[in-house]
Amino acid sequence: MTDQELVERAFTMLERAYVPYSHFPVGAALLCADGTVFTGCNVENAAFGSTICAERPALLKAISEGHREDLVKLAGNSTDYCWPCGSCRQVLYEFAPELTVCVARGDHAFVTLPLHELLPHGFGPKSLHQGG
Ligand code: THU
């Protein structure tokens, strides 16, 4: 699957986004090494702090379906470049510090960069075991 095809999968999720408060739909698609793709969208909540970003349903679907070691690439999109929020960067880093991230905007153009550039010196599972 090409990066552009993964980006297009993320775009298909915009219509599923539940965004009555921000009116800011986000779609995400996560590619695994075997070609499986897990998608997600943001799901807002009247208790605003309970809102869930698009990236996390995609990740949690993968993890809960047994894809933990083979997460390769995440695409996310909105009207303009939608960089994953800090919390999503952290949650992704837990399972896939080597993940590649494609960030797309409304005209379907995208930029690609490694998660470790979005979250330099990230704190992950290995950090807990250092010096122990
Ligand atoms: N949002 C995402 O889905 N992903 C991000 O990485 C940034 C923010 C959502 C959360 C909320 O529903 C809306 O965008 C506005 O913050």
Please describe what this structure looks like:
The chain is of the alpha+beta class. It has helices at residues 3-12, 55-64, 86-95, 115-118, 125-129; strands at residues 27-32, 37-41, 71-77, 100-104, 110-114. It has a five-stranded mixed beta sheet with strand order 2-1-3-4-5. Helix 3 links the parallel strand 3 and strand 4 (100-104). It is globular, with a radius of gyration of 14 Å. The N and C termini lie far apart (41 Å). The mean pLDDT is 96. It binds tetrahydrodeoxyuridine. Residues 19, 22, 24, 26, 42, 44, 51, 53-55, 82, 84-85, 88 line the site of tetrahydrodeoxyuridine (THU).
Question: Roughly how many Å apart are the termini?
Answer: 41 Å
Catalogue the ligands.
Answer: tetrahydrodeoxyuridine
Q: Which percent bin holds the helix content?
A: 25-40%
Structural class: alpha+beta
Strand order of the largest sheet: 2-1-3-4-5
State the total count of DSSP E strands: 5
How would the global form be characterised? globular
For the sheet with most strands, the description reads:
5 strands, mixed
Number of helices: 5
**Chain oligomer state:** single chain
- What is the alpha-carbon Rg in Å? 14 Å
The ordered H/E elements are HEEHEHEEHH
Task: List the uncertain runs.
Answer: none
Question: Overall mean pLDDT score?
Answer: 96
* Beta-strand percentage range: 15-25%
